[in-house]
Each structure stands twice: as C-alpha cells, then as structure tokens.
Integral membrane protein
Amino acid sequence: MMTTVRLWRWRRNALKRRSDVLEAWAVLLTALFALVGGVLLGVAAGSGVQHQLLRQREGRQPVRAVLAADPRAAHATSSDVPQGHRPATVSWRADDGRRLTATARVPRELKAGDTALLWTDPTGTRILPAPPTRSDAALQGTFAGVATAAAITAVCWLLRRWAAHRLDRHRLDTWAYEWARVGPHWRREHGLM
C-alpha cells in the first residue's frame, strides 16, 4: 500500500499535474545523485586524502638525534605539544655530515644523552613533524570519504527540498489564480453570495 501511495506520480492519472511529474523527476534524480554521486565522490575524496598523507612519508626521512639537555617542562595548555612530549635541544648529523642542532618535541621520559627518532626534510637539515602512519592515513581517508558523501547527500536533500518548495508555491499560485477566476461564478450559482 505504501509503495502504491509513493509511486502515484508515475502512474497514469487524469488529475496528475505537470508539477507532479517534475517533482517525481526531481526526487528520483536527487536520490540517484545522492547515492551514486555521494559514493563515487566519497571514495575519490577518501582515497585522495589517504594518498596525499602517504606521500608525506616520501618527503621525510627518519634520523636519530641526541638530546643535548633534559626536556623542558611545557605549558599544560600548549596545543602544539603532543601529550607526553616536551621540547628539548637535540643534535644530529645531516646527509652532508654537518652537525646540526635544533629544538624538537621528544618524549618526556628521555634525558640528556638519550637518542630520539625524529623526522627531517630530504636534505636532513630541518626537523619536520612525524608523517602519519598507514593506519592514520587510512582512518583520515575514511573520515574524509564519509564526510564528503554526507555533504553530497545533504546538498542533494536541500536541492530536493528547494525544488519541492518552488513547485508547491507554483501549485498554490495556480490554484489561487483558478479560484479567483472560477470562485465568484461558483458562489453565485450555489447561492453563497
């Protein structure tokens, strides 16, 4: 019964209006684009993000750095320092053999003289944040894909609601015009004036 009610705009009917057919097509096309377009664009966005994050590994190389001093206490509210990490002065050898020194975030349990694994640019001269792991890249890619599919679906739903609103306004305007034309004659005939 419910399917019959929902598909009435697709059946032959003398009372069916042109706007009913347009609304049926709008519903079908937005649902189709939300399903197919949402899935395809979601997969494309997810794999693009994952590929971009995995490419970051190619531009970074691991290096063993020696702590020159104990890590300093970082402010508890600092958002740029990961939990369990503190800034410390470290030194390492670049690819050309130079001894370099910089401040980097290292695990708080390390002491002066300990070694820490850090990531540098391809020349080995500048410390960079650690690249995402494969599982992190997969998780972020999945999130990006789901968010893209949800956004596409929301846009399709909003477009469908906008089209339905415009068609309803058109139907009401048409009805008001017809009633203004026929209403006075109908009232006189039925003695309602």
